[in-house]
UniProtKB/TrEMBL annotation:
GO terms for cellular component: cytosol. Residues 238-355, 381-460 form the Asparagine synthetase domain. This is Asparagine synthetase B (Glutamine-hydrolysing). Keywords: ATP-binding, Ligase, Nucleotide-binding. InterPro entries: Asn_synthase (IPR001962), Asn_Synthetase (IPR050795), GATase_2_dom (IPR017932), Ntn_hydrolases_N (IPR029055), Rossmann-like_a/b/a_fold (IPR014729). Residues 53-147 form the Glutamine amidotransferase type-2 domain. It comes from Rivihabitans pingtungensis.
Length: 502
């Protein structure tokens, strides 16, 4: 499976090869080909030798690939045994063909003088592009840091924080660099002056037509079960806390995978080892404890920012413990399973007293944030040489969640009420009704950074956290520094002293 790629197209024949930074580890392949309007260079990273077609690049996984290939074969398209079938799909359906695909992926294909970029229906692998009309050059990359240094101009923190939701969806932290959003494709005309047009092919906006509690619960259980049954491999790892989301994924995975290994992370200051152990006993599986020191949170901050390539501390605090867990797991499996996405779709962030309207708006806004938070970025696993599966972010689960009455997601003031009902009698009752605790809370990561940056008042803490992350981002993208070379103590002191990133 391809874990990352960088494409550069330039008019004329003077395209120069340059060094490229990619987080993904694996075999690199560099190819160059002539196009109708110039030259295209592709740099790919894969866990093993790539079997892709010359004009198709795909990062991530399409879970219904075999079904689509059979469909195209029935219609007379010749299968090249590689990824050429995506070309056939695009020529048969245009951008509407991407709506037939399931899974989490991002890709590009060269078609009749155009470079077509596309992302899966729901947020997964990242894909960015930039166009220089003067030099008639187009770049497309799965990572921002792989773009030329001259294209990596970081926007001021104030500008980034001031964006509205619609702008945030396709913008990035860099000037004149854009994101291919989930559910969208971008066609770049490679003619005399390259130009891009964005086209949506999927939306979560749909009719809310599942109003009955029993029907909703039954559909949730069946859909999640089917999604996990489609996941590849025989051996899975699962990071668990003993909370609802990871317990659901682990219990369903146990019925599918030949081997399932459970891991739980905690710090010397705080952990949920007892709850994770209780889940292990219920499933009849051992749980491996991963213990970290709080000091690792600060020094891991640059590593995580380098992977997600933004400076929004709210999301980074959640991802730091996940990243540390991935680093500590030395054994390898076919896939690492995550419970991420459940809180977003089923109102896990709702509070007591929230009415149905507030819950509906909360789910909508939280899902919108996933378009740019990169919490399901391929880099988080690829940097450790692993693939991560997100069952809750399968488009079938997302479709179902948005068709369910928001009232059922927070009935009786219980967050994720309908998800809990879906697994009533199927997982331990103590786990089923346990209040939500995020991994950043259960490991003490959120409180650690609050303590590090609260010297100027609690009301400023979140801004200071974002400022620190933005300063790290500048070091990585503009100064081209490796995470290990960044002096976090000095940056923290600068932020506290009011030397804010511009």
């Amino acid at each position: 499976m391809m874990q990352g790629f960088v494409l550069t197209h330039q008019a004329g024949l003077d395209l120069a090869t340059r060094p490229v930074r990619l987080s993904a580890s694996g075999m690199r392949d560099i190819r160059r080909q002539a196009t109708r309007h110039g030259q295209l260079e592709s740099i790919t990273v894969a866990a093993m030798a790539a079997t892709t077609s010359a004009n198709v690049w795909l990062c991530g996984q399409i879970t219904n690939e075999h079904a689509i290939r059979r469909l195209l074969a029935e219609r007379g398209h010749v299968d090249d045994g590689r990824s050429g079938w995506l070309h056939h799909l695009y020529r048969e359906y245009g951008y509407h063909g991407f709506a037939l695909l399931e899974g989490l992926f991002a890709g590009a294909l060269l078609d009749d003088g155009a470079l077509v970029l596309f992302a899966s229906k729901t947020p997964g692998p990242t894909l960015y592009y930039s166009i220089d009309a003067v030099s008639r050059t187009v770049w497309a990359s799965t990572e921002l840091k792989a773009l030329p240094l001259a294209r990596r101009t970081l926007l001021p923190l104030t500008d980034i924080l001031a964006r509205d939701a619609s702008c945030q969806r396709h913008a990035t932290c860099l000037a004149d660099v854009w994101r291919v959003s989930a559910g969208y494709c971008v066609q770049i005309d490679l003619a005399d002056v390259p130009s891009a047009s964005e086209q949506p092919y999927y939306s979560v906006l749909r009719t809310v037509n599942i109003l009955d509690e029993a029907t909703a619960a039954s559909r949730i259980y069946a859909t999640l079960s089917q999604v996990i049954q489609r996941l590849p491999g025989q051996h899975a790892h699962c990071l668990v806390s003993g909370g609802l989301d990871s317990s659901i994924v682990a219990s369903l995975a146990q019925a599918h995978f030949t081997r399932l290994d459970l891991f739980t992370l905690g710090s010397t200051a705080r952990n949920e080892f007892d709850k994770a152990d209780a889940l292990g006993r219920a499933l009849g599986l051992p749980v491996t404890r991963l213990l970290i020191d709080e000091s690792q949170f600060l020094h891991s901050l640059p590593e995580v920012i380098a992977l997600v390539e933004h400076g929004f501390s709210t999301f980074i605090e959640y991802l730091i413990p996940v990243h540390l867990a991935h680093k500590q797991i030395s054994s390898r499996a076919d896939i690492m399973l995550s419970g991420y996405g459940s809180d977003v779709l089923f109102a896990g962030f709702a509070k007591a007293g929230h009415d149905t309207r507030t819950v509906a708006e909360l789910v909508s806004s939280e899902y919108a944030s996933t378009a740019w938070s990169n919490e399901a970025s391929q880099c988080l696993g690829a940097a450790m040489g692993m693939e991560i599966g997100y069952p809750f972010f399968d488009s079938e689960v997302v479709d179902l969640a948005f068709a369910i009455d928001p009232y059922l997601k927070h009935k009786n003031g219980v967050e994720k009420y309908i998800l809990r009902q879906a697994f009533h009698g199927k997982i331990n009752a103590e786990v089923l009704w346990r209040p939500k605790v995020g991994i950043h809370e259960g490991t003490g990561c959120e409180d650690y950074f609050t303590g590090q940056l609260s010297e100027r008042g609690a009301d400023r803490t979140r801004l200071l956290k974002d400022a620190l992350c933005h300063a790290v981002l500048r070091e990585i993208l503009e100064q081209d520094r490796e995470p290990a070379d960044i002096d976090m103590v000095a940056l923290r002191q600068a932020v506290l002293a009011g030397v804010m990133p511009r």
